[in-house]
Design brief:
alpha+beta; 7 strands
């Protein structure tokens, strides 16, 4: 299975629709290995719980494990490299997001 959002413009009104409960955006740096752990933690027998943009990933639904993560240009995300991601403050302070 694969999961990603389509590319498009981000507007203030679209952010207001997804940032409910007074959440704010948080920018954080993670390694490719940490990104894989974050993605694995949200997989369940029902599939993917997170919506993502800016990269694509494939996972095995049976094992609930990420198979690959790629950037829009097709390059693989490397476990030791550092990447910047943006999420909401609620997710950033919980579980695998917490630093």
């Amino acid at each position: 299975m694969a999961s990603s959002l389509l590319e498009g413009n981000i507007t203030a009104s679209s952010l207001e629709k997804i940032l409910t409960h007074g959440n704010t955006l948080v920018k954080m740096k993670v390694t490719g290995e940490e990104l894989e752990a974050i993605l694995n933690a949200q997989l369940s027998e029902n599939g993917s719980d997170y919506s993502v943009a800016g990269f694509n990933y494939r996972y095995n639904q049976k094992s609930q494990k990420v198979i690959s993560i790629t950037l829009p240009n097709g390059n693989k995300v490397k476990k030791k490299d550092t990447y910047t991601l943006t999420t909401n403050n609620y997710l950033a302070s919980r579980g695998v997001f917490a630093q």
